[in-house]
Task: inverse folding
């Protein structure tokens, strides 16, 4: 089943401005980790707002879990939302609880976890994101990266079937970023039906994903597996996007005459190959 289907989606913030999302169509099948990349202002967050129902007047069609949302009634939309977890670009707009504990609890209540099991679960999810020492703090008093960690814990605690991240780890340090990505990738191993759409400026994350969508000026200009998309180096450069560092390094070494086989397709393999 396709978890997200978007057909000829178009939206302009006001009548006279250029559409922020301009005739975009794509599908995301169940169980895929899809990344959406594009430089600032290319329409990524607008697309996230359209998919999450924050923007409701648009042209085109959006189907979630096989159901066209234009035709769904409020009860059906409510049921769909319970299966979806969002982490938005600005974590300040995200919190529902007055403490970190309440915020994670909210996600658990959503899936009717019995009260006596709540504390254990809250601790597990807080620990996953390295925030177990902050459970009684107000989310307002946390740093940007800590807020993002709590927002992610809250969403993962919900056990959603679809996760939508809009630069959910943008404020984390490189190690934190990798840890959180590893958690999400690991959850997919536990639940192969978990579908992820992650908006990111992190090309390394895009390279690890199953499929990459590239937006530029509201239009979908490239899509495919990471290997396909990142082979279009010239097109990417034109729209101010880079290939992952190790791919650029590999290309530069090849240009200098070093023979590097095609199967060297990850950072780890390149490191191993160079250190032989
Ligand atoms: N609330 C708004 N009102 C009017 N125009 C907006 C609004 N939000 C975004 N835009 C415009 O829509 C376009 C797309 O913005 P959007 O936030 O979707 O980009 P983005 O790809 O998420 O960028 P970034 O990487 O900076 O987060 C931009 O031209 C932006 O100026
Ligand atoms: Mg954005």
Result:
């Amino acid at each position: 089943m396709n978890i997200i289907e978007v057909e000829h989606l178009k939206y302009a913030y006001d009548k006279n401005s250029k559409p922020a999302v301009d005739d975009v169509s794509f599908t995301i099948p169940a169980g895929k980790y899809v990344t959406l990349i594009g430089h600032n202002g290319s329409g990524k967050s607008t697309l996230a707002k359209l998919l999450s129902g924050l923007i409701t007047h648009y042209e085109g069609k959006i189907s979630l879990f096989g159901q066209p949302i234009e035709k769904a009634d409020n009860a059906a939309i409510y049921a769909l939302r319970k299966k979806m977890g969002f982490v938005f670009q600005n974590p300040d707009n995200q919190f529902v609880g007055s403490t970190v504990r309440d915020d994670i609890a909210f996600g658990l209540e959503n899936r009717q976890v019995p009260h006596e099991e709540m504390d254990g679960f809250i601790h597990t999810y807080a620990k996953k994101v390295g925030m177990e020492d902050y459970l009684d703090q107000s989310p307002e008093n946390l740093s940007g990266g800590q807020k993002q960690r709590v927002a992610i814990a809250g969403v993962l605690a919900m056990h959603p079937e679809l996760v939508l991240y809009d630069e959910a780890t943008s404020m984390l340090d490189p190690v934190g970023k990798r840890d959180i990505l590893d958690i999400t990738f690991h959850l997919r191993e536990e639940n192969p039906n978990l579908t992820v759409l992650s908006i990111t400026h992190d090309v390394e994350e895009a390279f690890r994903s199953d499929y990459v969508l590239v937006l530029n000026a509201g239009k979908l200009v490239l899509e495919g597996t990471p290997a396909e998309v990142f082979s279009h180096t010239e097109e990417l450069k034109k729209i101010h996007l880079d290939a992952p560092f190790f791919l650029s390094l590999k290309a530069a070494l090849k240009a200098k005459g070093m023979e590097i086989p095609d199967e060297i397709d990850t950072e780890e393999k390149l490191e191993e190959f160079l250190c032989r």
Observations:
- The first helix runs from residue 44 to 52.
- Strands lie at 2-11, 21-29, 33-37, 59-64, 67-68, 84-87, 162-166, 195-199, 211-216, 219-224.
- DSSP finds eleven helices and ten strands in the chain.
